[in-house]
Structure formats: C-alpha cells, structure tokens
Specification:
By secondary structure, this protein is α+β, with helices and mostly antiparallel strands. It has 27 helices and 22 strands. The strands form 3 sheets. Strands 1, 2, 3, 4, 5, 6, 7, 8, 9, 10 and 11 form an 11-stranded mixed beta sheet that branches. α6 (about 90-120) packs antiparallel against α12 (about 340-375), α6 runs antiparallel to α16 (about 445-470) and α24 packs across α27. It is globular. The two termini are about 65 Å apart.
C-alpha cells in the first residue's frame, strides 16, 4: 500500500503537491480558529498558529520525503541543472561526447566481432552441449573413418547423439559451391527447421550411394538463385550427377562450418562429390568430422577422458607413431570456442583498444577539471552554505553520466560505420577466389552489445568524472591556502598518462608495421609469379594434363601432394642411415617439375627422373636443413633413410611412401613450404610422384605470361576439357596474399589505434596548455611588465609542456618494451627492440607535444601587460 502511494505521488506529483499545501493551510486555519474562540486576538492567534505548526516549508519537505522517492527527485533536479549547463556551453558538451564517442565506437566495433564469433551461440537446440572431437597421434591430427563413426555412435558413454559431416567444394562451370555432406541425423539433432521443403532425414542416408538430394542455405537461395519460389524440386547437375533440391533452411542457421555453406547433401552420396578413396570402401579414409551432444550430467573432462581411452584402444594395433596419444574436444556452441588460447589472441587487441579509451578519458578528465575550476566560486559558496560534499560529488558525477549517454549513442553509430568499413576493406584485401569463402557471421547488435557499450560508457564516465568531482569539492577549497596545487598535479598526471599510452600504441604500431614489412619482403625461396594451384578431379586428371601440355603459354606442370602454404607440414618418423634413433621429419610427394615451377635450386645431386616419378621409386631429395640435421658431419648424397611408418595407414589426408627405405639423390635449397609464419623448413624430404597419378595431389601450373593472363588461359583450357574438371583454381600469388593478410590487418589496426591516440593526445595537450595560459595571464603580464621578452615567455610555457611529454614518453617506452614482447610471442618476425620503430614512435610523440605546445606558447607571448595589470 505504501509503495502504491509513492508511485501515485510520482505520477501525480503536481496534484498531490497542491493537496498537501491545501492540507497544511487548512490545519493552520483550524488552529488559528480554535485559538480565537478561546479568547486570543486574531493577530495573536495567527502568530500562535504559525508557531504551533512550525516551518511550513520544512513540513512540506518532510511530507514529500515520507510519501515520495526523495532520491529520484534529487536526481531529477541534478539532471535538470546539468542539462541547463550543457545548453549554456554546447561546445564543451559536443567535445566531450565526440571524444568519448570515438573511443567507445572503436571498442564496441571490436566487441561486436568478438560477440558474433566467440559469444553468440549457433541458432540450434542446446548449443552448449555440442562438442566436436578428433584424435591425434605423435605427429598429426586425425579425422574419423566411416567405421569409427558407426562404432562411436552406437557404443559410447558420453554422447546422447553424434553426427558426422564432410566438406566438399564443387565447381560447376565458373561457379564454386560449398557443400557439407552430413549424416541423416544432422538436422534433427541440431533442431534446425526449413522455411521451404524438408531437411535431410535418416531415410535419405539408408545405403551408400543413395540420397541425391540437396538442402539449400537461405543466403545462397537469395543470392545465387534469386530467391526462386519454385526452387523445391529443381534439379542441379554437380560433377555430372543430377541432384534434387528438397528444402531451404531457415535464415538464422548457416551451418557449423567456418566456410559459408551453399548446400547440405547426404553423407552417403560422398562418392559422387568427393575425390579419393571411397568413404565406405575397404581403405576407410579418415575424412569425417564428428560432433556429439553430451549426455546430461557428463562434464567436458569426463568426455575427454572417456574418448581418450576409446581411441587408444581403437588404435592399439597400429605402429607406435600412428597410435592415438590424445583427443581434441572443442565446444561447437559458437563459431570460435571461448578457450584460453582464444583469449590469449584477443587480449592484446582488447588492451590496445582500451588504451585508446583511456587516453580519451584522460583528455575529458582534464576538460572536466578546467570546467570545475571555472565553477570554483559556485562550489565554494555551496560548501560554505552547508552543502554536503557527497551531494556535490553526486551532482558532478551525474553530469558526467549524462554526457556518457549521448557519447554511447554516438559510439554506437561510429561502431556500425567502422564495421561496414572494415568489411569493405576486408573484401577488397582478400583475393577474389578466397572472398567467396569468407564466412562473415551476423554482426547485428544484440543485448550483449548494447549492454557492453552502456557499461563501458558508465565506467568511462566514472573514470573521467569522479576524480575531477572529488578534486573540485575538496573541503579546503574555501580556505586561503593554495587552490591550484592539487588540480595542477592531477592535470599534469593526466597529461603524462596520455603521452605514455600514446607512446605505447605508436611504438607497438611501429613494431607491427616493421614486422609486416619484413614479412612481405621476406624471401620464402619460392617464385610464385604465374603459378596456379589446380584441384583436379581424379577422373579428369590425365585429360587436363594432356590439354595443358599442348598449351604454348604453359611453361611447366607439376604435382604436389601438399602444395606450398597449404598448412603445416605433415610429418612421419624417419631414421637417417647410420643412426639408430628415429626423428619426426616433414615430407612431401612432388613431381620432378615441382622444382622448375617454383624455381627451387638443386644445390647438389640431381632431380628426379620421369621414370622414377612414374614408378614411385625409392629415392628422395632432401632440403639443406635436413642434410645438416640428419648427417651433420657427413655427405648426405647417397645416404639412406628408413621410413618408420606403415603404408597401410595411408588415407586421403595422409599419403605415405610405399617403401621402407629411400636413397638420397639430391639436396635442394631451403624454402618455406608450410605455414608462412614459420622459418624455412627444419626438415623436408621430397619423394617422387607423377603428375598423371590419380593420388598425386594438386596440379601446379606455371604460365609464361603474367598471373592475370594465365588465369584466363587456364580457365579456358579447363572449360575445354569439362565444365567441372577442377574443384578449385587459385593462383599462388593469392595464396601468398592470404597468408600475409593477418599481418596486414594487424599492422593497419595498430596504425589506426596509434593515429587516433596521437590525435587525442595532441588535442588533450593543446587544451590543457591553453587553459593554463589563461590561468597564468596575470603572472605572464607581470613578467612582461618587468622586462621579460617574448622568447622567454614562450620558453616558460614550452618547457612546462615538454617536461610532461618527456616524463610520459619515458614511461611509455618502458611499457612498450613489455607490450612488444607480448606481441612478439603472438606475431612472427617481430623485433621486440626494433630501434627504428621506437625512434619513430618517440619522435612522433615529441613532435605532437611540441606542436600542441606551440600555439598556447605564442598566445602567452601576445599578452598585453598594460591591459592585464589594469584589470587585475
């Protein structure tokens, strides 16, 4: 009942206020009338009634406090007072909103991407119980075979359901489709519905070879098929086989793959769409990715332990190096699992963006200090009249929060613009063949994004508003003591913080830029100009090679099981001749033309012969680093290598030599054939293979012309063989560009943060010095009246600013040493102590500080002492 009355008072405040005043008036009149009846004169009765009632205003305040939300009314008054002050000084409010809004926008853009990929769950049933699992041996990771999937689906203790899927890019003419081949329980297990037609069911996967049906992704339906309302029942020919489209999934679901999905097809039709060994044949290739749903009550560590035991028992009869040593278990609730490794990657990025916000807060805090100093007389009067310090602090903090709210709105708009610009730049930077493979999650804001920007705005308001509020309301402000010492120290501290943080960001940006330049200028030992990586269908391989060999523009055609920059090297255990211990070593199968295509020099010995390539002879070419590691004090030519791997363990993703001993016939130049961030291959053993062999891997075609012309000629040649002769065609130039993309993004992002930090620091120093010059006008006038020159006045102001800049720069350099060491642990080829980057960052900070100090210094030198002393 009491709460209801308070709410009524809040809603009908004006009416209840009038009723309360009327009640007090009636009470006063009744008291006066009673006194008059008792014989007191009218005048004395009026005075007596006033005395009996007491202070009417105080009585009204007490009544309102009893029946209203006093704190809410006090807040409303603070808000009203603050808004009036902002309208009187709109430039100040706009500057604060713009400064904080810019920093909030950048931070919110980053969090939006983090939220989309790491925090937002897939639109499926109970996503947090989904886990993808695979096993690994000593040298590499392994998928599951069809038999493994059948066994673990029917006989495990940790998953209530398990589905399997396989990725298959299919090229039809110039169009590439990305297809996920899934088991029959895929859609029912995930709880995904269709907007048209039906999903894939268990009945579609009854037997191998059955189920020539497709379920279409909603986005692909809209973009690649124009949203055709009659799409259900339409036939689509892929690799010479007709498929019927039976459904379109709802738009919220885009699959669990990191690559955009165009279609889903039954796993049993794998043989029609995937090259290599038959998934259901005797070789049982390890091609399947599997996802299970944990049973209620089963924890992730329990599942990890049970699966580890299961796979160890399953692989017990394999050679030592091919047995299971553990299980990888990753959550599939989101696109990127929230793990310690994920946070280790994102933490430096979030720290960099947070430092920009810190600079903005320091900038605004100085502005708030200046504004509080201008209002010092008002605050002194309020304190002398008995106003509580907490009450004044609350009012000043309320002003900061009111500025933070429109700053949050401006930040949200900046974040949206930043995201759209980043997507545009990303699409322009990506090679065209890879742009289609970029899976961009929905970056639409949700409640987490809105909550984040509001929380960040509130924290920023406390950071830039609380310290000035506490400083402005110190109890000694009305005393005759020094009123400028504490604010001056706080202002100087904030300037030093700004300069230090700016130096950290600029130096780290310089280190990243230098590292990126080194990476782009790095010689990987491979000449990739005019070279294309062609994934050819096995059935068409011989025809494609024959057609390309007749093309006069083709210089060389090679084959490689693992083309360069296709991921980390595959390793097997090998025992060098003359040694009794085996070591893991990288290996590859290449044709003799491989060394010609990439201009890899054979330093000693010879290349493979065509006969050795066709026969798969037991010979090998090794890299120089391998020769030095295997035979450090001997000649490697003519030595033998024992292969400690069982050829029976080979599958589509793991090709193994058919022999146990190989003789070294050549030593090649060291190159980077794995991941670009690695140094040259520590070990690499090349075994021979023929370009015409069905399982020889990718075709590598080198044209005599430039890359663009070669691409057109290659597409025309492939179309002349068959429309779907190739799965994918990608230039090695684009492969290299994709490998360099993370370094370019890191460099550009750090450069953007450094530029924004420099701009904020420049404006902050300029604002503080301009205010200080205004405060010291009397002092400067006296100095000039006593004979100080213009140069000496400029020197005074300039020296003060540069002293702060040097202190901040020294702190920033020390912090940058630690920050760059952290970055060096994440990014390859970063020199923690890059002298040029440190010098450039320090010079930029000093130059910005000097530029910001110049104009206030000139302003101080133009003070007219006569006018100053006349008005003092």
């Amino acid at each position: 009942m009491r709460l209801w009355k308070r709410l009524c008072h809040l809603v009908h405040r004006g009416r209840l206020q009038r009723e309360l005043e009327e009640e007090v008036r009636i009470h006063r009149e009744m008291t006066r009338e009673n006194l008059r009846r008792s014989g007191v004169s009218s005048e004395d009765a009026g005075y007596a009634a006033e005395r009996a009632l007491g202070n009417a205003t105080l009585a009204l305040e007490d009544s309102r406090a009893e029946w209203s939300f006093g704190w809410l009314e006090s807040l409303a008054r603070d808000v009203h007072y603050a808004v009036r002050g902002f309208f009187r000084r709109p430039a100040f409010a706009a500057t604060v909103i713009g400064t904080i809004g810019l920093a909030l926008g950048l931070n919110t853009a980053l969090f939006t991407a983090f939220n989309a990929y790491v925090l937002r769950p897939f639109a499926v049933h109970d996503p947090y119980s989904l886990y993808q699992f695979a096993w690994h041996s000593k040298t590499e990771g392994h998928g599951l075979t069809w038999r493994d999937f059948q066994e673990i689906r029917g006989g495990n203790t940790v998953f209530s359901e398990v589905f399997a899927w396989q990725f298959a890019p299919v090229r039809a003419g110039r169009q590439t489709y990305f297809i996920n081949l899934v088991s029959g329980n895929y859609f029912t297990m995930l709880g995904v519905d269709t907007v048209r037609g039906r999903p894939i069911l268990q009945s579609d996967t009854a037997t191998p070879g059955a189920g020539a049906v497709l379920v279409l992704d909603y986005t692909a339906w809209q973009t690649k098929f124009g949203g055709d309302p009659d799409i259900i029942g339409r036939k689509l020919v892929l690799r010479g086989h007709p498929f019927e489209i039976i459904g379109v999934v709802r738009p919220e679901f885009a699959g669990l793959s990191s690559v955009p999905t165009d279609f889903w097809a039954p796993l049993t039709i794998s043989g029609e769409l995937v090259d290599g060994p038959d998934l259901f044949g005797p070789r049982q290739p390890e091609q399947l990715q599997t996802v299970g749903r944990l049973k209620p009550g089963v924890t992730e560590p329990q599942a990890q332990g049970a699966l580890t035991v299961w796979f160890r028992q399953k692989t017990m009869d394999r050679p030592e190096g091919s047995r299971s040593t553990g299980v990888l278990l990753d959550s599939r609730a989101t696109s990127i699992p929230l793990t310690r490794q994920t946070m280790g990657v994102f933490a430096p990025v979030f720290a960099g963006f947070a430092l920009v916000l810190l600079i903005a807060c320091a900038n605004v805090a100085n502005m708030m200090l200046a504004r509080a100093a201008a209002r010092q007389r008002e605050i002194e009067i309020r304190l002398s009249l008995g106003a509580g310090r907490s009450r004044l602090v609350r009012q000043l903090v309320t002003e900061s929060l009111l500025l933070a709210l429109p700053a949050a709105a401006a930040g949200f708009a900046i974040a949206e613009a930043t995201i759209h610009l980043a997507l545009y730049v990303m699409s322009r930077m990506l090679p065209p063949d890879y742009a289609a493979m970029l899976h961009v999650a929905s970056l639409a804001p949700d409640m987490r994004v809105f909550g984040y920007i509001l929380l960040l705005a509130g924290l920023a308001a406390l950071v830039f508003g609380l310290a000035p509020a506490l400083q402005a309301t110190r109890p000694d402000v009305a005393s005759a003591g020094d009123r400028r010492g504490h604010p001056a120290r706080l202002r100087n501290t904030l300037v030093i913080v700004q300069v230090a943080v700016c130096a950290v960001l600029l130096i780290c940006a310089g280190v990243l830029l230098r590292g990126g330049q080194k990476m782009e200028a790095r010689d990987v030992g491979l000449d990739m100009r005019g070279v294309f990586n062609v994934q050819v269908l096995e059935a068409m391989r011989a025809k494609v090679v024959e057609r390309l060999e007749r093309d006069p523009a083709v210089e060389a055609i090679a084959a490689a099981w693992r083309p360069p920059l296709a991921g980390s090297q595959r390793q097997i255990f090998m025992t060098p001749g003359g040694s009794t211990s085996s070591v893991p070593a990288g290996y590859n199968f290449v044709s003799p033309e491989y060394f010609t295509v990439f201009r890899i020099r054979i330093d000693r010995g010879r290349n493979f012969t065509a006969q050795e390539a066709r026969a798969g002879a037991a010979v090998a070419i090794i890299s120089g680093a391998t020769a030095r590691r295997f035979w450090p004090r001997q000649d490697a030519l003519g030595q033998s290598i024992r292969i400690d791997a069982d050829p029976a363990a080979a599958n589509r993703y793991r090709k193994l030599p058919a022999f146990r001993m190989a003789r070294v016939v050549g030593i090649a130049k060291d190159v980077v054939s794995g991941i670009l961030v690695n140094d040259v291959d520590s070990t690499c053993v090349y075994f021979p293979v023929s370009p015409r062999a069905a399982d020889s891997g990718a075709l590598l075609v080198r044209f005599k012309t430039d890359t663009d012309t070669g691409g057109r000629l290659l597409n025309a040649a492939l179309a002349g063989v068959a429309p779907d002769a190739a799965g994918q065609v990608i230039s090695m130039r684009d492969e290299l560009g994709l490998a360099l993309l993370p370094f370019r993004l890191a460099s550009w992002t750090s450069g953007l943060l450094g530029g924004v930090a420099l701009l904020l620091t420049l404006s902050g120093i300029y604002g503080v010095l301009s205010y200080l010059v205004g405060q010291r006008t009397r002092e400067i006038g006296i100095r000039m009246a006593l004979g100080a020159t213009t140069a000496s006045v400029v020197r005074i102001v300039f020296r003060q600013s540069m002293r702060l800049a040097v202190l901040g720069l020294a702190a920033g350099v020390i912090l940058a040493l630690g920050a760059s060491r952290v970055l060096a642990s994440v990014f390859f080829m970063m020199n923690t102590f890059d002298a040029l980057a440190y010098a450039a960052g320090a010079l930029a900070v000093i130059a910005a500080a000097a530029g910001a100090a110049y104009f206030p210094s000139r302003q101080a030198a133009q003070v007219d002492p006569a006018i100053t002393l006349r008005y003092d």
